[in-house]
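Dear Dr. H.,

I hope your travels went smoothly. While you were away I took the liberty of generating a structure for the chain from your last submission, since the lab meeting agenda had it listed for discussion. I wanted you to have the full record in hand beforehand rather than looking at slides cold. The sequence, exactly as received, is reproduced here:
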Amino acid sequence: MSSRPRKITQQVLIGDIKVGGGAPIVVQSMTNTDTADVSSTVNQVMELSRAGSEIVRITVNTEEAAKAVAEIRNKLDQKGFTVPLVGDFHFNGHKLLEKYPDCAQALDKYRINPGNVGRGKSRDPQFQQMIEFACQYNKPVRIGVNGGSLDQAVLTRLLDENREKPEPLPLSAITREAIILSALESAAKAEEIGLGRDKILLSCKISNVQELIKIYEDLSDRCDYSLHLGLTEAGMGSKGIVASAAALSVLMQ
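The corresponding predicted structure, in token form, is as follows:
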């Protein structure tokens, strides 16, 4: 297999961890605790850090979770764990960041799926609010798209265009393009709002190994944003291990 030339991307600083720009690949994992349970979440973050996770993602989906973030950060610092924390936001992230500034400040990165930040006409304003908070607190943002949260407006637009072609492309190709375009268009919007390119990471996940490789290779050719690699819905046990290893080893190489 011929190797692709390594592309140098924008470097993003997450806490004190460098991502992209020729820096070594870093590992991010995620807690499965209730973030509002401060003690359990702190303990699991420390366990993940000891196991080699250099960045840890926590869910921030409720007011109770948002209230707990600053305390989680403080307790980790007191115990000597400086591992950066990523806030996983969905439909109500804009409200939580506004109501709990301590949470907004304590997190080292915000995680947004544009297809999940709102519905219909509320999507763009809510996405804008999230990006504005990232600018205000000087935080990087991982803008992620996957098969389960794909912006249906983008997919519909591409399907309509495809039907007009003399030789329409297969659905798989249109889906790949919709995922990539959704990420790139969202990143462009974030830049228009004021977020620097050195504050943006892109993620385009799908559960099929071969499709995932095609998507990331195409995405890498079309931008120089730092990339977050991952296989969504990989599955449990050996299935998840094999699928993730197969996809990520090719992409990392």
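Two observations you may find useful: Strands lie at 12-14, 17-19, 28-30, 55-59, 85-88, 109-112, 141-146, 200-205, 226-227. The two ends are 11 Å apart (CA to CA).

With kind regards,
E. W.
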